[in-house]
Amino acid sequence: MDAATFLHGVLDEWQLLRPAVHYRYQVAGENPAPPLRNDPALRAALLNLLNNAADASPEAMEVILRWSEDSAELEIRDHGPGLTSDTAARAGAAFFTTKKEGRGLGLFLANATLEHLGGSVRLFNRDGGGATTEVILPCRKGNDT
Question: Which of 22, 45, 98, 126 could form a disulfide with 113 if both were Cys (CB 3.0 to 4.6 A apart)?
């Protein structure tokens, strides 16, 4: 399945789970989009990252998909308070959370899933406020499943 179709499906599923969240989706790449694994664990990881951004900024988010021959890059931008230096240093560690009801496993598991698939996730503050979650996904080659 190509990256744009895969992400569109993830966003449709996520919008059913979080209908009150407002976001803008942008695809910025030459057609055709590269193939990605249609992997349930990847879907779950992306849903988790989208939920984290929505928790910080339910009124406005941007989701941007770009790609090259070798990888797809997804940016999830929120307009929340951004990351404190402590949060930035500890984000992704098991059992670290800033949420009252959180368990501190979502970002940890999303990162582990993405690394297992050959990708990565990185969080950083945006100029002007908010945070960006950058996800790099390797494109599927040949007969990879």
Answer: 45
Q: CA 18, CA 47: separation in Å to the nearest integer? A: 10
For the CA atoms of the chain, what is the radius of gyration? 15
Question: Which residues, at least 6 apart from 90, have a Cβ–Cβ distance to it below 8 Å?
Answer: 96
Residue where the block lists tokens 């949060």: 87
Q: How far is CA 40 from CA 10, 36, 112, in A?
A: 10, 12, 14
Instruction: Decide which of 3.40.1790.10, 3.40.109.10, 3.30.565.10, 3.90.180.10 is the CATH code for 3-138.
Output: 3.30.565.10
The predicted model scores a pTM of 0.85
